[in-house]
Design goal:
Length: about 550
């Protein structure tokens, strides 16, 4: 999940398809600028990346009527949640899957791979989706990606060998991943960058709700049908319903909207594209590979902001997906060693804890940002944007809940305790985990100039999903070899070592970003523009262009 990011570059408007029109770009001045984003007239980085439409243009997504914004946002949310649902609904089918393919007892790797390979496929989406979206817009990708994902899930359900199931599951993640990537950009196109944590809190719940509802629904499906294939068939049905609902969604990408109205200027789409500035995500194959492959790979090794953010995210995201394997194993263990929960009871436990934890994290993040905005507004008496380091506050709080939950769960996964104890602990973990995701990813939105931010977000997204896909493969071996107390205790100690990360980013982030290689060169392409100076002012708020990096 979204996606999704960006540092200050001013792009004035092109001639609009409307009467007032998009005018030729006034200027293109890039900066990471003064790290003080509270100045009146300063522009958030995520508001700067590719703004070809005039702020007053009625076609500008920022000017959509409220009902249209809500519908388009809800559609993106449902598409992302449905893809996440497809990942975890499969996890409820362990017993039937093992029996159908006769692959042994316990929880064999062939079954766990059904989840891991789906996530692995999603991990590649941040690499290629931004470049396709630049050339086609967002809406067409939604409408193509989701049904293709559904076809591969259907293929998994119809498969007669484990190998074909796994190939189809990987392909489903690869083709459905763009829905989790694009949601962040879709929201950013329509909602103010001044409230990034607020809108990200809502869109961030898509992955959590979808992933939580998967085992919940899957448990009841297995109980009703005793057939693992229905976890796949139901996912396909859900995809079909959501796809039909989304047929009316609006295009929100500001470089694409004028292209679709080029005929009003008596131009073909190709002719209009030739008048647009080069895509900041790269024009040639080499430029695109540099930004979302080479720079994304090098970022964690060369930039402290990218390194710390990626490390923080990949650990917390990796741990969250092991719950879909370890929780059923723990709760499904028969007495006297375990509570002997049925598959529908296990699904209910996972579903409720996931949704409750994510909802509480979203509400906390929204409250913190809204209160902070009011405090800053009273002090400045002018419209303000919070310094982006303030977006890290929920992560500072949430990380302590991560540590508490890991030790809590490790100590209570035992016949001596009620099964409700680790279940509640899991909800606490999800609260902390969602607080970090909702906080750190929006921070990266505005950390660097466009190409640098896209590289940073791609790095953080792909890394955290790849680690999330690997963790379920090893967690049961860790628990068996070390006992739950030590297996989760080790995670707890690792989380303690990460406590300083959000505080370091808050304290030293402005300095690190100002001296970053991503800040000094905006695109690394032909113009070689340096990002020096102050953030350019504006008369009115413009929209944001963001290329999402998942989510989860």
């Amino acid at each position: 999940m979204s996606i999704e990011m960006l540092a200050p570059i001013s792009f004035a408007a092109r001639p609009s398809p409307s009467e007032e029109g998009l005018k030729k770009p006034m200027e293109k001045s890039g900066v990471l600028g003064s790290i003080d984003d509270t100045q009146e007239g300063s522009m958030m980085a995520s508001e700067m990346l590719s703004h070809p439409m005039h702020p007053d243009d009625p076609l500008n997504p920022m000017n959509f009527p409220l009902h249209r914004k809500i519908f388009t946002s809800l559609t993106a949310w449902l598409f992302a949640a449905t893809v996440a649902f497809g990942a975890t609904c499969f996890t409820a089918s362990k017993a039937q899957f093992i029996q159908d393919f006769n692959i042994g007892n316990g929880i064999p790797l062939q079954f766990i791979a059904g989840l891991s390979l789906y996530l692995w496929g999603i991990a590649f989406a941040p690499i290629w989706t931004p470049h396709v979206a630049e050339r086609t817009g967002r809406s067409i990708i939604y409408l193509v990606a989701l049904p293709v994902c559904g076809l591969f899930i259907l293929g998994a359900g119809l498969s007669t060998t484990v190998a074909s199931v796994l190939v189809c599951r990987f392909s489903a993640g690869l083709t459905g991943g763009p829905c989790l990537v694009l949601i962040e950009g879709t929201f950013a196109d329509m909602w103010s960058a001044r409230t990034t944590n607020t809108y990200y809190a809502f869109l961030g719940t898509a992955a959590y709700f979808g992933a939580s509802l998967g085992p919940l629904s899957g448990g009841y499906l297995i109980k009703a049908t005793d057939n693992w294939r229905w976890t796949q068939y139901f996912s396909v049905i859900l995809i079909a319903v959501v796809w039909i609902f989304g047929l009316g969604q609006s295009e929100t990408y500001q470089r694409e909207i004028p292209r679709r109205h080029a005929h009003k200027q008596n131009k073909s789409r190709k002719e209009f594209c030739q008048t647009q500035d080069p895509a900041l995500s790269g024009v040639t194959i080499g430029e695109m590979l540099k930004i979302t492959v080479l720079d994304a790979f090098l970022g964690p090794f060369t930039d402290p902001v990218v390194a710390l953010s990626t490390l923080f995210l990949l650990f917390n995201f990796a741990v969250v997906f092991q719950w879909f394997i370890s929780v059923p194993a723990a709760l499904g263990t028969p007495p006297p060693m375990g509570p002997g929960y049925t598959i529908d009871q296990i699904g209910l436990a996972i579903g409720i804890t996931g949704m409750v934890g994510a909802t509480c994290a979203a509400l906390m993040s929204i409250t913190i940002e809204q209160v902070s905005l009011r405090v800053f507004k009273k002090k400045s008496r002018t419209p303000v944007s919070l310094p982006i380091e303030h977006r890290l506050v929920p992560a500072m709080i949430g990380q302590f809940f991560i540590t508490t939950a890991l030790f809590w769960i490790g100590a209570t996964v035992s016949p001596k305790f009620s099964p409700l104890a680790p279940i509640v602990g899991t909800a606490v973990y999800i609260f902390g985990n969602a607080s970090i995701i909702i906080s750190v990813i929006p921070y990266l939105f505005d950390a660097f100039p466009p190409a640098g931010t896209l590289s940073a977000l791609t790095s953080a997204a792909s890394a955290r999903i790849l680690f999330a896909s690997a963790m379920p493969m090893v967690i049961l071996y860790d628990i068996t070899a070390l006992t739950p107390l030590w297996a989760f205790g080790i995670f707890g100690f690792i989380s303690v070592a990460m406590w300083p990360i959000p505080f370091l980013l808050f304290r030293y982030g402005p300095t690190w970003r100002a001296h970053s290689r991503y800040t000094k060169v905006i695109t690394g392409m032909d113009d070689g523009m340096e990002t020096r100076g102050k953030v350019p002012s504006r008369d009115s708020e413009t929209t944001a262009y963001k290329i999402g990096a998942m989510g989860a």
